[in-house]
Amino acid sequence: MLLNISTIVFAASITLFCWSCYGRFRLLLLGRPENRFNDVGKRIRGMIYYAFGQRCTVSHGYRFGWNHLVLFWSFMILLIANTEFLLEGLFPDFISFSLLPVSVYHPLAVLIEIASVLALLAVCIAMIRRLAFPPSYIEARSRDAFIILGLIALLMVAFFGLHASEIAQGSEEAASYMPISKFIASTVFSYVPSENMGGYISAFWWLHAIVLLGFLNYLPYSKHMHILTGIPNVFFRSLVKVNTQPREEFKKGNSFGVGKIDQFTWKGLIDSYSCTECGRCSDNCPATATGKLLNPRLVIHDIKVNLLKNGPLIAKKKDMVLPLIGGGEGSVSDEVLWACTTCGACMEVCPVFIEHVPRIVDMRRNLVEMNAKVPDELVSMFENMEQRSNPWGIVPGDRAKWAAEADVKPFETGKTEYLFYVGCFGAFDARSRKVSVAISRILNAAGISWGILGKDELCCGDSMRRLGNEFVFDRMALENIRIFKEKGITKIITECPHCYNTLKNDYRQYGLELEVIHHTEFISNMIKAGKLKLNAKDSGNVVFHDSCYLGRYNGIYDAPRNVIASVTGHAPIEMERRNDRSFCCGAGGGRMWMEENTGKRINVERVEEALKKDPGTICVCCPYCLTMFEDGLKAKKADARVQVLDLAEMVSGALK
Amino acid sequence: MEEEKKIRKPRGVARLIPGKCIACGARCQSDCPEDAIEMNEKGEPVINTAKCIGCRRCVKICPAQALEMYFTPEELKIIAGLAATVPEVVTTVEPGIKEYRGVWIFVEHTEGKPATVSWELLGEGAKLAKTLGVELCSLVIGEKVEHLCQESFAYGASKVYLIDAPVFQHYRTETYFRAICYLVEKYKPEILLMGATGMGRDLAGAVATKIKTGLTADCTGLDIDEKGYLLQTRPAFGGNIMATILTEKTRPQMSTVRPHVMALAKKDESRTGTIVRESMDIKEEDLPTRVIEVIEDATGEQLDLAGAEIIVSGGRGMCGSENFTILQELADELGGAVACSRAAVEAGWMPAERQVGQTGKTVRPKIYIACGISGAIQHLVGMQGSDVIIAINQDNKAPIFEVATYGIVGDVFQVVPAIINNIRELRERKVDK
Amino acid sequence: MLIVTCIKQVPDTTQVRVDPVTGTLIREGVPFIINPYDTHALEEGLRLKEKYGFRVAVISMGPPNTEITLKKAIALGADEAVLLSDRAFGGADTLATSQVLSEAIRRLGQKEEVAIVICGRQTIDGDTAQVGPGIATRLGYSQLTLVDRIESVDLKAKKIRVRRRLEGRHEIVEAKLPAMIAVVKEINSLRYPTVPMRLMAEDSKATLWDNKIMGLNENTIGLKGSATQVRKIFSPQRTSGEIIGDGIKDPKEASRLLIERLIEKRALSI
Ligand SMILES: Cc1cc2nc3c(=O)[nH]c(=O)nc-3n(C[C@H](O)[C@H](O)[C@H](O)COP(=O)(O)OP(=O)(O)OC[C@H]3O[C@@H](n4cnc5c(N)ncnc54)[C@H](O)[C@@H]3O)c2cc1C
Ligand code: SF4
Ligand code: SF4
Ligand code: SF4
Ligand code: SF4
Fold first, then answer.
1. Range of the domain at A337
2. In a domain? residue A559
3. Quick one: closest CA in A to C193, which residue?
4. Which of B116, B245, B401 is the closest to C230 by Cβ?
C-alpha cells in the first residue's frame, strides 16, 4: 500500500519535474538559431576540463571556490544515489543498489557516505559564509539561496536517518560500508528497540522522498537552475575568444539588435538560465566597481526574468508585458547598457562561460538602430564617423599631418610589404601622434618595408561596432576592405589595440584574412630576431597596464612585458589586477566618446592602483589607455612625478 | 557679308583651369547660351567643345576666373596675324538708374539705445558719399527716437529721415520694413547700409526682396569702382575666400556690414543737418506679429555660452576654483562668458554645463581665450571653429598653440591681469579724449 | 497642415583648404553635406510634426545630386521631398533663390495648407541669412528669424509664439500663421536616423520640379534673376598662429601687443 502510494507520488513528481524542465526548455526555443554544435569533441573535452574540473571556480583565487568544487562533486555522486532512490520509488521491486554485485555496491556505498558528509559540510560552510561574510551583492543572502541550501542539508539528514535506522533495524546488509550511518545508528538509535525502527525508516524514507521531490520541483523555478543548465552551457561555450560581434543583414523588413527577449539566440537565453549568481563578473567589472548602474550579473539575471515573464506569453502569441530595455527587474536600462566598456573582464571570469558583452551590444544595437535612442554626445560622434570617418569630425585631409614629423613613405601597391595603420588617435591626437612618430622610427630601424595610407586611411569602425551602430560599422568595414583589396594590402601593423582587434577579428567575418600585428608584438618579434638593437637602461619603476583589447581580447600578455624587460633590463612592476584580470582604463566600448557622470571615474580608480606601486613610468600600449592614464594622473596631481609612455616610445628612446 | 570676312577671328572654346573652380552654383552653365556646359558631381563645369561657340560668356561670369578660352596653335597663328587690325569691342553697361542718389545708413537701436555699428557705418558712408559726391543720410525709425537724429549729425550725416510713432516701439520686421520700403521708394537712395546684426540682417533681407534689389551680406570692405558701383567685399565659404560683389542693374545697392570692422566716425556735437519727418499709416491691429516680452540676457557669470561672442575659458592650469574669478573679470570686461575644459569640471571648479569639448558644448565665438588649457583633442573639437583663438599657456609645446591665432607663452596669473589692466587703461584714455 | 523645411546642400566648407602658394581653394575630396543649420530646421519641423501632427515636406534647390541630401531628410522622418533643379535655377543669388523657393512653397500650398516654413539661420557657404527673409517677404508670411525656441503653436487661433535670440537679449514674439521661421543651432539637438528608416529612404524618390513644371519667368530666377554679381574672388590674408611677445619675461608688454593686434585686426573694439 505504502509503496503503491509512493509510486504514484513519485510518478507524479517526476512528471511534474519533467514538465517544468520542458517548460523552461521550450522557452529556449523561442530564441533565434545559432550553431553551437560544431567541433563536438572539443566541446566535450572543454566540458570535462572546465565543468567537471571546476576550473574557473577554483582558479582566480576565490576563497569559496573549493567549497563549490566539493559540493559539485558530492552532488555528482549523490546524483547516482538519488537516481537510484527515485527509480526505486517508481519500480520498488526491480531497482535497488542492493541488487548490484557487492564488489560494486560496497565501494559505492562508501563513496556515497563520504559524498553526503562532504555535501553536508559544504552546505553548512556556504550558509555560514552567506551569514558571516556575505558576498558583495545582496541576493546571495536571499531566501532562495537558503531554501536550496536548507533542502540539500535536509536531504543529507534524511539520507543518514534512513540508513542509520535501517542499520539499527539490522536490515542493511552493507552496514559496515556505511561508517557514518552506522555510527549514527549506534549512537542516536541505540536505545530505540529494533522492532520500532520500521516507523523511523518509513518516516525518514518519506522525508527523503519529499525533500528530494520538492528539491527537484523547486529547482527549475529557483535561481539554482544552473545546476541543470550549467554543464550544458559549458558545452555550448564559444570555442574562440569572444572578441567580435555577429554581423547583421541590412535588408528591408529586418529588425536589428535585440529589443525583445525572443530576438536573442537560444544561446543567449540558456546563458541566463545558467548563471550561478556567483558574482565573479560583477566583482571584476570596472563599471560596477566604480559605482555605475551596470552590474553584469544583473544584466544576465534580468534577461532570465524577462524570459520567464514574457516567454510563455510569446509562446501563446500574446503581447509581452515586460520590456527588455527599460529598467526595473527583468528589464535592462539604457544607462546600464551605455556604461559597459566591453572590457571583457566579466566573460573572462565567468565559470559557466556566459557571454555578457555580446548581449549588451545586442541591446545597444536595438537602441541605436531601431530606436535611435542614444546619449547626445554620440549623435555628433556618429555623424562625424559617417561623414568624416573619425570620431571628432576633423577634416580627413589632416590625417597625414603627423607624418611631417617623421620619416614616412606612402604605401605603394606591390612594393610595400607592411601597412602601418595609424588609426584616428595616432593621426589626430597630439599626444598619440608622438607615438606614431616613435613607431615609425622603430619600423625604420627594423629595416622593413612599410608605408601609410595617409589621408586615404579611414577609421576602422571599432567604436561604432561596440556602440551598437552596426549599420555604419558595416559600411565602414566594407569601404576599408575595398581599399585593402584594391591596394593589395595583406600585412598590417597597428598602433591601437582596437584597430588591431577590428581588422583582425571583426573583418574576418567579411572573408578578409589579414596578417594583423600590433606594434607590441611586432617590436617583441623584432627584438627576438635581433633586428632591433636596444641600449637597455634601467629607467626606474615601470608599471605596465594591460589593454583589454590586446590582453583579454587577443591573449597578448607576454610580448609587451618582454619588450619592457629588453628596454629596462628587468621585468615591469605588476599591478594587483593584471593579465587576464587586468582592470580596464575606462575608454573601450565607445566609452571614450561619452561623459562619465556616475560614480568614480574608472581611469582614476586604475591610476590609484598604479600609483600604489610608486612608478616613475606607466607603460601602456593603447592610445585610449594613454589618454585615460594621463587624465587620471592629472586628476590625482601626480603628472609631475609619473609619466605615461607608450611601449613604442620607450623602445624608440632606447634604440641604438 | 560672308565674303567680306574671309579670315574670321577664331573664337576658340572655353575650358576649365584645373583647381580654380569654387563650385559657385553653376553660374557658367546658367549663362551659356548653347547648353554647352554640364556640371559634374563636384559641381564643376564640363564643357562640350562641340557645342561651344566661343562666346566667352562663361569666362566673364565666372567669379573665380576659373575658365579661359582655348585656341589651337593654328588658331593662335591667325589671331597673331589679326591682332593689330581688330580692336577689342568694349561694351559698357548703362545703369539707367541715375535718379537714385545718396548714401543711406539705417540707425539701429533698441528702444532708443543706438547700436555702435550704426556710427561705424556713418564713418564708412561718409567716405563713399564723398567719392560719389552725394549726401550722407541716416534713417531713424522708432518711438521717441529724435535724439538719434542729433547723434547722427554728430557722426556725420547731413540729413535724417525720421519716422517716430508708437507702433515702432519694438523692432518688428513688418513695421520697419514697410517704413523703409516706403522711404526708399519715395526718396530713392543709391546705397543703403545696415549693420550685419541680428536685426540688420532680418530687416535687410526683407527690404531687398520687396524692392527686388541686390543685397550683400556681412561685408567687411566697401569701395566705389570707376563706374560708380559699390564694391562690396565679404568673406564666403566659411571665411576661406573673399568675394567682391556688386549690384549692377538695380538700386539701391544694399549691404549689411559686419560690426567692429569699420572705423568709428569722429563725433562732432556741433554738426547739424535737416530732419525729414515722415509718417506711416500702420495700425497695430493689422500687424501679424507682437513682441510679448523682452528678456535681457543675464550678464556676468550667468551669461549663456551659446550667445556669447567672447569666451574666456580656463583649464587645469587655473589651479583652483577661486582663480576663475580673474577669468570672470576679464570676461566681464569684454562682455563675454566664462567656460572651461573638462579638467576644471572634474576638479569641481566649474559646473558641467560650462564644459567645452567633445562631451561638452561646441562653441564658435568671435574670440575664444584659452587660459591654462593644454589643447587636448577632446577640447579642441569643441572650440576650433572660433574666429580668433587666443592661447595663454606656460608650456610652449602645448598643442593649443597649434590652433591658436595668437598665443602668449607665459603664466596665466600674470598675463590675464595684465590684459585686464591694459583694456581698462585704453578705455580710460578713450574717455579722456 | 504642412510644414515646409528648406534645406540646402553645401560643400563642407570647414574641410576646404586654401593652397598657400596659389591661393586657390582646394576642394579635392570635400564632400557635400546638408547645411548644418538646416539640419536643425528639419529637426524642429519633425518635432512639431510629432507634437501637433503636421506633415513635413522638405524642399531644396540645387543640382540633381541634391537628391542624396533629401533622402537623408526622409530617413529622419520627413514625409515628402521636392528637388528644385534646373539649369535655369543655377547661379542664383538670394533674391533669385527665394523666388524659386517661395514659388515652390506656393505650389505645395495648393495641395495642402502651409502653416510654417522653417529655414536654417544661414548657410555655411553663402553665409547670407537672406533667403529666409526673402521667402517670408515674397509669400507675405510672418517673419521670425534667429528663433531659438518655439514656445507654442495654436492651430485654432493660427498663432505661433517663439523666442528669438538677439544681441544681449531674447524676445518672445507672437505671430500669425503662416510664418517663416529661421532657426539657430541651439534650438534643438539632432536626432539620429533609425536603420529601418534609412533603408526605406534609400528606395524613396524626391519629386523633381524643374522649370517646365514651375514655369517661372527666366528673368526672375537663376543668374538672370540675380541682382548681385560676384565680380571677383580672392583668398583672404590669413593670420596663421603667431606667438606674441615674451609672456614669461614681460607679460605686460605681451598683453599690450595682443590687445593692439586684436584691435588692428578688428577682432575687438575698445
Ligand atoms: C562667394 C559668394 C558670395 C555670395 N554673396 C552673396 C551675397 O552677398 N548676396 C547674395 O544675395 N547672394 C550671394 N551669393 C549667392 C548665394 O550664395 C546664393 O544666393 C545661395 O544660393 C543662397 O544664399 P545662402 O546660401 O546665403 O542662403 P541663406 O540665406 O544663408 O540661407 C538661409 C536658409 O535658407 C534656406 N535655403 C537657402 N538656399 C536654399 C536652397 N538652395 N534650397 C533650399 N533652401 C535654401 C535654408 O533653409 C538656409 O538655411 C554669393 C555667392 C558666392 C559664390
Ligand atoms: S565588459 Fe567590462 S564593463 Fe562591460 S559588463 Fe563586462 S566587466 Fe563590466
Ligand atoms: S554571469 Fe557568470 S560570473 Fe556572473 S554571476 Fe553569473 S555565473 Fe557568475
Ligand atoms: S564660351 Fe560660350 S558657348 Fe562656350 S561654353 Fe562658354 S558660354 Fe558656353
Ligand atoms: S562659374 Fe566658375 S566657379 Fe562657378 S561653377 Fe563655373 S567654373 Fe566653377
1. 261-373
2. yes
3. A372
4. B245
